[in-house]
Write a structure and sequence with these properties.
The structure holds 3 protein chains of 3 kinds.
Chain A lengths: L2 H24 L21 E6 L2 E2 L3 E2 L11 H13 L2 E6 L5 H6 L5 E7 L2 H6 E9 L1 E6 L15 E5 L3 H15 L6 E5 L2 H9 L5 E5 H10 L4 E4 L7 E8 L5 H13 L2 H8 L11
Parallel strand pairs in A: 1-4, 1-5, 8-9, 8-10
Antiparallel strand pairs in A: 2-3, 5-12, 6-12, 7-10, 7-11
Helix pairs in contact in A: 2-8, 2-9
Chain B lengths: L5 E10 L2 E11 L4 E5 L6 H8 L7 E6 L2 E2 L2 E3 L5 E3 L2 H8 L2 E4 L11 H11 L5 H14 L15 H13 L5 E5 L7 H16 L4 E4 L3 H7 L2 E6 L2 E6 L1 H6 L4 H12 L3
Parallel strand pairs in B: 3-10, 3-11, 8-9, 9-10
Antiparallel strand pairs in B: 1-2, 1-4, 4-5, 6-7, 11-12
Helix pairs in contact in B: 3-4, 3-5, 4-5, 5-6
Chain C lengths: L4 H9 L1 H32 L4 H16 L2 H15 L10 H27 L2 H9 L4 H31 L11 H12 L2 H29 L23
Helix pairs in contact in C: 1-9, 2-3, 2-5, 2-7, 2-8, 3-5, 4-5, 5-7, 6-7, 7-9, 8-9
Classes of the chains: A alpha/beta, B alpha/beta, C mainly alpha.
């Protein structure tokens, strides 16, 4: 092949590649699949349910034996149950905690099912389908009796996973203290929950705040070093499955969850992972 | 005859497997000017470096004003090389001028000369500046005090280097091929300064290829070759009627190059 | 275009962003200062004639270039208080822990930069200084080091600017600097463009300021015209100012 036609060939390939990249960047808006069989319309890829998750949160989602493609836990198994209901394959997209909603809206997955509270902020940008009541829980070091109520948190250092509703709860509480002339709460935000546990164990924080389901798991694994303080925060929020705002999937997911609760699938899973089945609530 | 200012006794120096100095004896008395000639590799620059205490000899002694330098002598007579910080003190009495000038690039002309005064002699800044200015006047560089070395010609840099070495009032000045790196046109100004120093009675040892300068200014000329001193004689005898064939051979080569 | 300008300007001027930016800059600058000092010491060890010294210096550079900065931060913050109970007290803040971590790691890189800068100074400078009778520490500080610093400025400027970005690693020990401030705002409001753009503006401004400072410093060291270091010797013969 002579040099001129060879460079022309290269130019065409490069041009086509760039065109494809550009097209895929602006396109993809309405390219979800149609309904087929038991699966609803609106899946990004036909025959597949992709689920965004942050698998570092036992007992809701975590990795067993380091198998990053197959997380375990209540949420992960719940997603698999939904996939089975629709007769589609389930694929998990791991992302960091604060990337769960952005990934959903960035169309990297069909749903986000990863122990997220249904909060007003999240409802503004996505559809939340609640399935379980929950609330924040507090963990302190064993033998530390200085915190018995929410007011005792004034002047304390509390570790929290950054960027979530629990941090907002702490901030709100701290602001109320300051307004009342009391010392506020020193908030230590960490990217991962494991780091909040370390902070309390090694004494850099007095307490940590987490959802009550995770609190049980953390205390269990702490070998007696940590203890949960019940009743500090009211059980006022709900865990939800999230879909894109106004997505075609919102209704099918809602129906699906309703069914999985009524036919006993989710209650069985709850028992399997040490959660209280009576907390399940039909959306 | 008073003690020589600088004396080398049976100097040996080896670099790896090569023996560069094979037992050299040398001395220079007060006010004397000695010129060292010889092919490259003959060891003449090494002698200067050893006498300036910049390197240690592998054998032999160096005496400054009669006292052995570069080593410390214990009570039982054994000697040990002095550590660097003690050597530094002994070096203050010896001035050295290098072929490549080695002016301090980050300092202007004035501060190049005052550095030794303030850091070594402990002079106040004011005194140091006036001493330096006087010395720079002597070498004809008073109009470039704020210039930096990179802005000077080779001849100017070497004259500043001479002033820098002179300013601490050393007993002896050592010159290591001071004009070899200069354009021919600039050689003259440096030789002029050196001649002025000799006339003023400075004790000098000069390694050089400038035979006319050596003939005019030196009290004695020496030829080095292969690590030994081949010939040592007053200039007229050295240049016109040398005793050794090697000297004759060397001189004929110099003459052939138009020197 | 769906960009809320009010939110953007509010973010730009918010105290959270200013505070985060000051943390990033403060941490980067202080860490670089400490790293340069420690790194200088390590560099001297590496070029020493004493074999024990070179071994120690070499071991430091090897160890702290091998271990990831993230790991160092986690070790200092989490393992530290386990081993030294004194570190459990409040004075051992995330900022202090991050400062120690970054300084200690960056010192290994600065040691190499400074070592190459020291070696780049022409041998003749060293020789002439010694010949004048300057004590060894004065040879280093009055003659060799100033010339080495000039060579070290551009790569050090690089390191400082890179360090400014690395400070975001300290989020793993709960330090909320500039980038994490933006991230936390985003995760609450889900408005990405506005907050990330505000962070971007801050980084641009800070780095521009650092580059301007570097230029000023380099100008002060221009006692040799660019690229002439080490050429003071003979090579300039007859080319410069006529006598």
């Amino acid at each position: 092949m002579n040099r001129r036609s060879q460079s022309a060939r290269v130019a065409t390939i490069v041009g086509a590649a760039m065109g494809a990249i550009l097209l895929s960047a602006c396109g993809g808006a309405d390219s979800t699949s149609a309904a087929s069989g038991k699966a609803p319309a609106g899946l990004l890829e036909a025959g597949q349910l992709s689920v965004c998750t942050d698998p570092e949160y036992p007992p809701m989602e975590y990795l067993e034996n380091g198998d990053t493609a197959n997380p375990t836990g209540f949420d992960s198994d719940g997603a698999r149950a939904l996939g089975k209901l629709w007769d589609v394959k389930v694929v998990f997209q791991n992302t960091s905690f604060d990337g769960l909603i952005p990934a959903l809206n960035g169309k990297r997955c069909d749903i986000t099912w990863s122990a997220l509270y249904v909060s007003p902020e999240r409802q503004r940008v996505a559809d939340g389908i609640p399935f379980m009541t929950t609330g924040p829980g507090l963990i302190v070091r064993s033998g530390d009796e200085s915190i018995r109520s929410a007011d005792d948190l004034s002047g304390k250092t509390v570790a929290v996973q950054g960027g979530g509703s629990n941090e907002l709860t702490l901030k709100g509480l701290s602001d109320r203290f300051v307004a009342a002339g009391k010392p506020g709460i020193t908030i230590q935000p960490y990217p991962k929950t494991a780091e909040t546990v370390a902070a309390v164990t090694n004494g850099k924080a007095d307490a940590l705040i987490e959802t009550d389901v995770a609190v049980v798991d953390m205390v269990d694994k702490s070998g007696g070093k940590l203890v949960a303080k019940p009743g500090i925060f009211p059980t006022e929020t709900q865990f939800g499955v999230f879909t894109r705002k106004g997505s075609e999937l919102t209704q099918p997911v809602t129906t699906g969850i309703k069914q999985l609760i009524s036919d006993g699938t989710l209650p069985d899973l709850a028992k399997k992972y040490g959660l209280d089945p009576s907390r399940l609530v039909s959306p | 005859m008073s003690t020589p200012v600088l004396q080398a006794v049976d100097l040996h120096r080896r670099y790896g497997d090569t023996e560069v100095l094979k037992g050299v004896d040398f001395s220079v008395a007060r006010g004397e000017v000695k010129a060292l000639l010889g092919p490259s590799g003959s060891g003449k620059s090494t002698i200067l470096r050893l006498m300036a205490l910049l390197e240690h000899p592998d054998g032999g002694e160096i005496l400054l004003n009669g006292k052995q330098v570069g080593v410390s002598t214990s009570s039982n007579g054994s000697t040990r090389r002095l550590p660097e910080r003690h050597l530094a003190v002994q070096r203050r009495d010896i001035g050295m001028v290098f072929q490549r000038f080695n002016l301090f690039a980050h300092l202007d002309v004035l501060r190049n000369v005052t550095l030794a005064l303030t850091e070594v002699a402990g002079m106040s800044k004011k005194d140091a500046v006036s001493s330096a200015e006087a010395m720079l006047e002597r070498v004809g560089m008073s109009d470039r005090l704020q210039h930096y070395p990179s802005e000077l010609s080779g001849g100017q840099q070497q004259r500043v280097a001479i002033a820098r070495a002179l300013v601490t009032n050393p007993s002896v000045m050592l010159f290591d091929e001071p004009t070899s790196a200069l354009d021919p046109e600039l050689v003259g100004e440096v030789l002029e300064v050196m001649e002025g120093l000799a006339d003023a009675g400075m004790t000098m040892v000069v390694v050089t290829h400038e035979t006319r300068f050596a003939r005019r200014v030196a009290d004695e000329v020496m030829l080095f070759d292969g690590g030994v001193m081949v010939e040592q004689a007053p200039p007229n005898q050295f240049f016109d009627d040398p005793r050794h064939d090697r000297t004759r051979q060397f001189l004929s080569h110099l003459r052939g190059v138009g020197n | 275009m769906d960009f809320e300008w009010d939110m953007f300007t509010a973010a730009l001027t918010s105290s959270a962003f200013v505070h985060g930016a000051m943390l990033s800059v403060g941490l980067a600058v202080c860490a670089m200062v400490l790293a340069s000092i420690v790194g200088f010491g390590v560099a001297l060890l590496r070029i020493a004639s004493n074999r024990v010294a070179t071994a120690v210096g070499g071991a430091y550079v090897w160890f702290f270039r091998a271990i990831p900065t993230l790991l160092v931060l986690l070790l200092i913050w989490n393992a530290g208080p386990q081993l030294l109970p004194a570190l459990r007290d409040d004075w051992f803040t995330p900022f202090l822990a991050a400062l120690i971590g970054f300084s200690v790691v960056e010192a290994a890189y600065m040691a190499e930069i400074l070592r190459s800068a020291l070696l780049s100074v022409d041998d003749g400078q060293h020789l002439a200084a010694r010949a004048l009778g300057l004590a060894p520490h004065k040879v280093l500080f009055k003659v060799v080091l100033p010339q080495a610093i000039k060579v070290a400025i551009p790569p050090s400027g690089n390191e400082l600017i890179a360090m400014l970005k690395y400070t975001s690693l300290a989020s793993v020990i709960s330090l909320r600097e500039l980038l994490t401030t933006a991230q936390s705002q985003v995760s609450v409001t889900f408005r990405y463009a506005e907050y990330y753009s505000a962070a971007l503006v801050y980084y641009l401004v800070i780095v521009s300021a650092l580059m301007a400072v570097q230029q000023v410093v380099e100008r002060r060291y221009r006692w040799i015209s660019a690229g002439r270091v080490g050429q003071v010797s003979g090579l300039k013969v007859g080319t410069a100012v006529p006598v």
